[in-house]
């Protein structure tokens, strides 16, 4: 088992850590760094539960090799809230009851953040398109879509 | 995940030599959305991943009205469909590249990766074939160009020799009076492999077709061109009757298999439907 | 206390929409699910699965795997305990195949290693020799007398009289059951109109996003601890004990947060394997399924074949109804044929009815519970036949249903009288809904309507509550929280104690901490767990009154507990404590006050749903687009309306997946070839519209707050509603689910061919 040393910035902090050369980014986050927020739902890019933001872009961490993140910058669910408050998306998900079992929630939140970063005022159709790679089996998406709309409003009205 | 090593190449030469030394099981890693999964599920033997995303020539999109469009083979799809020149001049490329996987896949997947994965159903392939894109290849013997329509030799197989990889994809400059379109049929509205996909390209002069290219995916062992449609359309004025003939030719040319994603009857029929629909859009674009 | 329609408006907490207690952990990535379990010296396990659907396991050689550095143990069925019980053996065989692999993906061996990659490498080194047998995956083929036999010792058991089913021959039919009322044969003879149709449904998987995962540690002292993803920690504890030939005292199950279950996380799959690997290695072992294994080896719901015959009078009265239901159980007996039978005619009262049900083993994963198990398939068949009968009678489909609706006092299929139910209220609400009465606009559009019935479940639940000195109340529940359980139970306790929601601190306990609690499933948790919360509240109120009485040195009868949670004496204004004031005094006046309650209730209230859907069909491709969806449901009392709506949304989404895109695809050799989220096509956000809900509240008289279960029934109506909408849009009657684009397109082409004969539209296109 070849081990490799990786340097990356995760949620704003420099991290140097040891990974297995055949780890995916998802495995490295969970098993080497103890960041358990990204979830494994399918391990082949079809559910989005493992979504994180890499160099400003949404990716499925199961479809990235850990070795690829050398020098990259990552944002994960663990860094979405700041020390004194939740992110407006997190608040909106809570208040709109946009989660039931919660396993897909970190992926949906990171995907929604990537969406609002790029498009602060998305239509329902645009939200559905953007989130189509994130599967939720509990909610039928209704309340998730409403939470993203609600959150966009909160962000736009406070800025 | 099978046992493998990872190497990052920063120049074309470095990538060529890594691939050459790595032998049969060395693979080029671009977005990895197919390759990493295949390696994990042990569907492909991989001992070495050569990451080509740090080679400058493989990333980025550039356009000039004189030389055309060059897309670095490892450029993530969102940069392809988000590029203003691609949006303005190559709508069929936008149509195909913006529906491959979900948003997170499009942050990584690339046209070069789609080419090299060589799936009979690869969505961007028929868009590239119809518009006569050229794959620019580097390898131990130097560089060469292969039209995308001649790139595939079988399911998951292509013309690349040991040590070779795709550097970029070239598409001729946009000409007025021409238009391309691309569509696929999938059971859901996203996240599916195409049951059939179809790329078309039309050039019109004074209402008459001067060039017509139709490519179909998921109807044969590789994506296919349908030369019969070119023969039907070239020299003719487009009307419902002639488009119906083209659609019939598409159904005729399709020789699909029956699998979990579609039946023979369904695929042959959809080949016609998508041909008809994309030709109508391509014609409208050519005339605008 | 009995809920009535009068007092439901006086609730202070019930009916509000607070943020759930576990919410913040779940939006910050902190919530700990089973696969997140970390501990010192942890090993990683993987399971080797059969590449064949039906094969004798001749030999297994693990020597090469064991020689791989980092591999700590390899086990097979031989490492699990022996048993004399046939039913226990079948459960064991589903965990790891002992002599025959009975489905593609059936576990045959397992490895524990220091790293998950090494465990995977080791799987490739285990050599298994198989003798391949012919598989059978189709339920009707499996019923044929010359079908490949899965279990040579299996004989048909009968829960039926006057039938000619043989019980002394080798067979795949595990059970024939019959429910009968009146004289159908005679009633059909007297019917003005008779309609008979047959239907098929595919295998449908629950599709929870979290794969099964379990970590086990078998300590040197003999104690086994399991951290897993479970809908029923107590049920699983008992099941694991049975399989390992131990007793409940040897095992503690500590349920982690659960990433969806829908019935599929009740059966035990991984836990005995992880436990035995832990015993062999004396280290904790974590075992998480791959997504492929989830599809291959955990329970989908049964594929079915159903035949329905209805006899009606011209005025729409259905006087005779007959159903023949054959459910594929998968590799071992135990399809949901019982609830399939009991729900088939659930919304209606027919004077004469006869239902035959068959449980049939096939070379497929053992079916497991899935949201209203059995009901979607049998009611799809019945509802679709009723819609077609309405067409035949030229009656409004809701009129026809209302005419035949069941009601309080009428017998259910087993003969017991229904309590107060909302069947009629739901039917009226559908008929009067603006959606139902709106005009459908556009080309190739269609509307469908259908009802659903589910009986809901009661069963055992237990919880403990402790009043803290600051006036808060800790509530430990035995039900895992799969989608708002902590909130809904805390709300019912807060209501009973007249406290705020925020004063209750709910906690999901392990199997050593609270009384036996049955699964989070069967739409029973808010009902039964809520009843426990109510009784806890009543007991705590009594104890608070007693404590105050002791402090004041008076009789408890003089002390009142008010609707504002004031403990006081009416005749003496000096004698009054707020809840918090009294709580503060507990330590010095006798100690903390707590209560533990366990119940076993059978007064659950059946649930009814009525759905309306509008669709558009692309006739060139067979693609169906949902334009509008309305789900109406009798929910009894909506404790937390947001999560009630969420349950309805989720049920509709799963039902629409069954109706349009989800299915198991087997090749001719019985291989499941679409075991991924790519090709098992669950609806994405782009496939569904917003789903409108209307909550009808007919309180369940058998519950202190009128709760009925709400989670399951909304999965029932989508299939027949879609079926009718497709008929409305295309004129085609299609009798299989899903109506995938492939199926619909081929039917459309077929009908074009038939109708265009001689019209020369050419070569079957358009």
Describe this structure in words.
- The complex is a heterotrimer of chains A (159), B (288) and C (766).
- With 159 residues, chain A is an alpha+beta fold.
- Chain A has helices spanning 25-32, 88-95, 105-118, 124-130, 142-158; strands at residues 3-10, 13-20, 51-54, 57-60, 73-75.
- Chain A has two domains: 3-78, Ubiquitin-like (UB roll), CATH 3.10.20.30; 88-158, [2Fe-2S]-binding domain (DNA polymerase, domain 1, Orthogonal Bundle), CATH 1.10.150.
- In chain A, 34% of the residues lie in helices and 17% in strands.
- In chain A, strands 2-1-5-3-4 form a five-stranded mixed β-sheet, sandwiched between helices.
- In chain A, a hairpin with a 2-residue loop joins strand 1 and strand 2.
- Chain A starts with a strand and ends with a helix.
- Chain B has 288 residues and is α+β, with helices and mostly antiparallel strands.
- Chain B has three domains: 5-51, 2-Layer Sandwich (Uridine Diphospho-n-acetylenolpyruvylglucosamine Reductase, domain 2); 56-171, 2-Layer Sandwich (Uridine Diphospho-n-acetylenolpyruvylglucosamine Reductase, domain 3); 178-287, Enolase-like, domain 1, CATH 3.30.390.50.
- Chain B contains eleven helices and 14 strands.
- In chain B, a hairpin with a 3-residue loop joins strand 4 (61-64) and strand 5.
- The longest helix of chain B has 24 residues, at 264-287.
- The radius of gyration of chain B is 19 Å and the shape is globular.
- Chain B starts with a strand and ends with a helix.
- The model of chain B has no long low-confidence stretch (mean pLDDT 96).
- With 766 residues, chain C is α+β, with helices and mostly antiparallel strands.
- Chain C contains 20 helices and 30 strands.
- In chain C, strands 3-5-1-14-11-12-13 form a seven-stranded mixed β-sheet, sandwiched between helices. A seven-stranded mixed β-sheet of chain C has the order 7-8-18-17-16-9-30.
- In chain C, strand 27 and strand 28 form a beta hairpin.
- In chain C, helix 18 crosses helix 19 (718-730).
- Chain C is globular, with a radius of gyration of 28 Å.
- Chains in contact: A-B, A-C, B-C.
């Amino acid at each position: 088992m070849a081990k490799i040393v990786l340097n990356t910035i995760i949620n704003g902090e420099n991290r140097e850590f040891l990974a297995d050369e055949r780890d995916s980014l998802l495995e490295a986050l969970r098993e080497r760094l103890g960041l358990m927020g990204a979830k494994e739902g399918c391990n082949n890019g079809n559910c989005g539960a493992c979504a994180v933001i890499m160099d400003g872009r949404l990716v499925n961490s199961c479809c990235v090799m850990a070795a690829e993140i050398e020098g990259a910058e990552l944002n994960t669910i663990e860094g979405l809230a700041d020390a004194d408050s939740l992110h407006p998306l997190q608040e909106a998900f809570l208040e709109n009851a946009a989660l039931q079992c919660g396993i897909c929630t970190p992926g949906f939140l990171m995907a929604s953040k990537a969406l609002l970063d790029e498009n602060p005022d998305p239509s329902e159709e645009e939200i559905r398109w953007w989130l189509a790679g994130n599967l939720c089996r509990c909610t039928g998406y209704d309340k998730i879509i409403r939470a993203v709309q609600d959150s966009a409003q909160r962000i736009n009205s406070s800025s | 995940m099978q046992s493998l090593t990872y190497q990052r190449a920063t120049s074309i030469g470095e990538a060529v030599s890594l691939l050459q030394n790595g032998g049969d099981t060395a693979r080029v890693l671009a977005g990895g959305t197919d390759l990493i999964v295949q390696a994990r599920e042990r569907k492909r033997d991989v001992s070495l991943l050569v990451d080509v995303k740090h080679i400058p020539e493989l990333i980025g999109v550039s356009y000039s009205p004189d030389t055309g469009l060059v897309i670095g083979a490892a450029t993530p799809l969102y940069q392809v469909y988000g590029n203003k020149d691609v949006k303005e001049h190559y709508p069929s490329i936008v149509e195909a590249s913006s529906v491959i996987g979900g948003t997170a896949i499009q942050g990584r997947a690339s046209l070069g990766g789609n080419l090299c994965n060589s799936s009979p159903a690869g969505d961007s392939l028929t868009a590239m074939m119809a518009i006569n894109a050229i794959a620019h290849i580097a390898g131990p013997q130097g560089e060469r160009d292969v039209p995308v329509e001649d790139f595939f030799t079988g399911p998951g197989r292509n013309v690349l020799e040991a040590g070779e990889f795709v550097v970029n994809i070239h598409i001729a400059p946009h000409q007025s009076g021409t238009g391309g379109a691309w569509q696929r049929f999938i059971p859901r509205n996203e996240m599916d492999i195409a049951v059939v996909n179809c790329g078309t390209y039309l050039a019109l002069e004074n209402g008459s077709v001067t060039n017509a290219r139709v490519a179909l995916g998921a109807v044969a062992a590789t994506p296919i061109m349908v030369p019969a449609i070119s023969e039907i359309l070239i020299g003719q004025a487009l009307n419902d009757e002639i488009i119906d003939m083209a659609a019939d030719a598409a159904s005729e040319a399709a020789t699909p298999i029956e699998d979990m994603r579609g039946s023979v009857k369904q695929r042959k029929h959809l080949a016609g439907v998508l041909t008809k629909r994309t030709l109508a859009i391509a014609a409208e674009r050519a005339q605008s | 206390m009995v809920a009535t329609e009068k007092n439901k408006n006086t609730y202070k907490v019930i009916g509000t929409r607070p943020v759930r207690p576990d919410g913040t952990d779940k939006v910050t990535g902190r919530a700990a699910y089973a696969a997140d379990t970390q501990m010192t010296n942890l090993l990683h396990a993987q399971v080797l699965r059969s590449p064949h659907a039906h094969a004798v396991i001749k030999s297994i050689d693990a020597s090469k795997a064991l020689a791989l550095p980092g591999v700590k143990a390899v086990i097979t069925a031989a490492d699990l305990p022996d048993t004399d019980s046939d039913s226990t053996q079948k459960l064991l065989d589903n965990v790891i195949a002992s002599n025959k692999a009975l489905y593609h993906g059936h576990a045959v061996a397992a490895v524990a290693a220091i790293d998950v990659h090494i465990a995977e490498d080791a799987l490739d080194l285990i050599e298994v020799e198989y003798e391949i047998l012919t598989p059978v995956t189709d339920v009707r083929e499996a019923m044929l007398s010359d079908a490949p036999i899965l279990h040579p010792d299996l004989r048909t058991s009968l829960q039926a009289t006057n039938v000619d089913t043989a019980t002394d021959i080798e067979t795949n039919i595990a059970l024939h059951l019959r429910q009968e009322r009146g004289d159908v044969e005679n009633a059909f003879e007297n019917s003005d109109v008779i309609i008979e149709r047959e239907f098929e449904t595919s295998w449908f998987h629950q599709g929870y996003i979290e794969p099964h995962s379990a970590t086990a540690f078998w300590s040197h002292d003999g104690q086994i601890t399991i951290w897993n993803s479970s809908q029923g920690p107590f049920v699983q504890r008992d099941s694991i004990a049975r399989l390992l030939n131990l007793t409940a005292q040897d095992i503690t199950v500590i349920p982690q947060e659960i990433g969806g279950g829908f019935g599929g996380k009740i059966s035990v799959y991984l836990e005995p394997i992880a436990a035995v690997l832990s015993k062999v290695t004396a280290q904790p072992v974590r075992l998480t399924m791959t997504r492929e294994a989830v599809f291959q080896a955990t329970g989908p719901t049964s594929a079915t074949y159903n035949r329905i015959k209805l006899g009606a009078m011209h005025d729409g009265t259905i006087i005779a109804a007959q159903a023949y239901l054959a459910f594929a159980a998968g590799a071992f007996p135990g399809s949901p044929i019982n609830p399939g039978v009991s729900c088939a005619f659930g919304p209606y009262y027919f004077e004469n009815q006869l239902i035959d049900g068959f449980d049939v083993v096939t070379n497929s994963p053992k079916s497991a519970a899935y949201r209203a198990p059995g009901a979607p398939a049998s009611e799809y068949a019945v509802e679709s036949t009723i819609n077609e009968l309405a067409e035949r009678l030229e009656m409004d489909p809701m009129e026809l249903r209302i005419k035949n609706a069941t009601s309080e006092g009428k017998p259910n299929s087993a003969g017991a009288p229904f309590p107060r139910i909302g069947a009629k209220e739901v039917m009226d609400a559908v008929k009067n809904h603006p959606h139902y009465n709106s005009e459908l606009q556009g080309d190739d559009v269609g509307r469908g309507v259908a009802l659903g019935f589910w009986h809901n479940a009661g069963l055992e639940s237990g919880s403990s509550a402790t009043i803290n000195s600051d006036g808060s109340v800790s509530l430990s529940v035995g039900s895992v929280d799969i989608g708002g359980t902590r909130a809904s139970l805390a709300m019912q306790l807060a209501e009973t104690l007249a406290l705020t929601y925020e004063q209750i601190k709910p906690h999901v306990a392990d199997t050593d901490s609270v009384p036996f609690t049955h699964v989070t499933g069967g739409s029973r948790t808010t009902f039964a767990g809520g009843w426990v919360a109510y009784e806890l509240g009543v007991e705590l109120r009594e104890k608070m009154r007693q404590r105050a009485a002791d402090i004041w040195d008076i009789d408890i009868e003089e002390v009142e507990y008010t609707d504002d949670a004031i403990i006081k004496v009416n005749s003496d204004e000096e004698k009054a404590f707020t809840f918090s004031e009294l709580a503060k005094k507990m330590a010095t006046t006798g100690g903390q006050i707590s209560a533990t309650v366990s119940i076993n209730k059978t007064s659950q209230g059946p649930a009814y749903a009525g759905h309306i859907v509008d669709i558009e069909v692309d006739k060139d491709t067979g693609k169906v687009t949902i334009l509008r969806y309305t789900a109406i449901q009798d929910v009894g009392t909506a404790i937390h309306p947001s999560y009630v709506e969420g349950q309805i949304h989720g049920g509709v989404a799963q039902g629409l997946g069954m109706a349009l895109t989800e299915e198991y695809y087997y090749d001719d050799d019985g291989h499941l070839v679409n075991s991924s989220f790519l090709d098992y096509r669950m609806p994405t956000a782009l496939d569904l519209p917003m789903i409108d809900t209307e909550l009808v509240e007919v309180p369940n008289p058998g519950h202190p707050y009128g709760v009925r279960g709400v989670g399951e029934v909304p999965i029932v109506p989508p299939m027949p509603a879609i079926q009718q909408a497709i008929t409305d849009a295309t004129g085609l009657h299609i009798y299989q689910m899903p109506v995938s684009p492939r199926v619909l397109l081929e039917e459309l082409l077929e009908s074009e061919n038939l109708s265009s004969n001689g019209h020369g539209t050419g070569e079957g296109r358009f």
